[in-house]
Each structure stands twice: as C-alpha cells, then as structure tokens.
C-alpha cells in the first residue's frame, strides 16, 4: 500500500518562512503514518495575492524555497510534490511544481501548461505556459503531475495515463468570487468534486488534489475540498474548508489490474 498525505492550508501571503514551517509541522504531526508521498497546494509558499509572485521568483533550480523542501523530504524520508512556486528562466516566469524524492533529489519539474486566462483570470499576462507533460517514477509507482486549471482539460490527463501514470496529483488554488462563495458555493463544490471523480474514472487512476482554503482577499476565496479519488471514481477522502491533511493508503495493484482488463490509455 502507498501512503499519501494531501495538505490543505491557507498560506500567509508573502511569508515564505511561516508557510514552509506550517508544511513541516503538518508533516511532523503525521510522521507516525506510512507516508510515501506528500502533495501540497499551488502557491504553497507565497499565497495568491502577493508581491512575491512577481518580485521574488525562484531560480530554475527552485531557489531557497525548494532547498528547504528538499531538507524536509530528507528529514521525514518521504517523496514530495512541492505544490508550485514561481520560477524564472531567461526573464520568463513559470508556475512550476518540483518533484522531490526521499533523498532530497529533484527528480523532475512540471511547468503548468493550461493557464487560467478565462472568467476574469489573467495568469497568462504574467506567466509563460509550459510545454511538456510530465510523469515521474517514484520508488512506489508512477505519478503524473497536473496543476489547477489543467483538470479542465481531459486530454491532458489522458496523456499522463498513456505515459503510465497510476496516480495523478493536482496542486491547486481553486478559488471563486465572493459572490459565488456566498450564493452558489455548493454548486461550485459539486462541480469540482465531479471533475476529480471523472478524471480518476476516465483514466483508471487515483487522483489527489491539494487545495488552498480560506479567504484570499476582498474579492475571492479558496473552496478547500481537497480530495482523493479511486480509479473507479469513489471518494476515498475529502476535506471541508478547514486547514487539515488527508491521509489515505492506495493500492496501486488495483490500478495495474484494471488496466489489463480495460486498457483505457490505448483507446481513442
């Protein structure tokens, strides 16, 4: 069985040190469990409404933030999907997830491909989209990486499944306007849950989505509802809107068995 720790919290804007300490505290509080993989939210170190988003990006090796996460991986002997940080290369900014193993080595990184440029989103005005679909071989199995708005693109998930992903993780900062939060949050949450269940079922993989929670600024709030789904679309664990962790043990042999029965990745 593969132990997954999915973190849901509200980062303090522009306080990287506090946010990284919060991440470590949540891992430490659960280190009595078998943890093979920790998944963090998008923008875990800076929050969303922040000057550091533009003014203090990390370098192409992840900078000081990822260095500290590498130390945490070594200390607790766990693999980590380090949410996302804003990474700079050749004067371009990327929304990047760093993938780190138990020994603190960066195995890969994924730059978000599908930027949130719709319904009032302006991510593409600052961020350059990535161009590579990424899966990673860990010591327990193969994991595909998506970020936030990627979940709206079924073919992205299918490509990850075709590359052999058994788990697809999604660091996210899934937010809604205050108007939606007050008047139709239930509907928004149901759609979000349905997206996660459908991507899992469509591709016969486990899905693990780690979200921020709480009020972001005067206009938007994160919906929480971090979630882990089975290859058959069942909800294994789901958060509400509090700061918390989800823990689940996943049987990857079930994914491997299902794919021999119904080879979804090879069917167009």
Write up what this structure looks like.
The chain has 268 residues and is of the alpha/beta class. It has seven helices and 15 strands. The model has no long low-confidence stretch (mean pLDDT 92). The protein has a single domain (2-260), classed as Nitrilase/N-carbamoyl-D-aminoacid amidohydrolase (4-Layer Sandwich), CATH 3.60.110.10. It has helices at 16-28, 52-55, 63-76, 154-162, 178-183, 185-203, 252-261; strands at residues 2-8, 37-39, 79-89, 92-100, 106-111, 135-137, 142-145, 167-172, 175-177, 206-211, 213-215, 220-223, 227-229, 235-238, 244-250.
Task: Return the CATH architecture.
Answer: 4-Layer Sandwich
CATH topology: Nitrilase/N-carbamoyl-D-aminoacid amidohydrolase
Q: What is the name of the CATH superfamily?
A: Carbon-nitrogen hydrolase
Helix content estimate: 25-40%
Strand portion: 25-35%
CATH C-level class: Alpha Beta
Q: What characterizes the major β-sheet?
A: 6 strands, mixed
- The coarse overall form would be globular
Biggest sheet: strand arrangement: 5-4-3-2-1-15
The number of distinct structural domains comes to 1
Oligomer: single chain
| Spans of at least 5 consecutive residues with low confidence | none
Which structural category fits the helices and strands? alpha/beta
Q: In DSSP terms, counting alpha (H) and pi (I) runs of 4 or more, how many helices?
A: 7
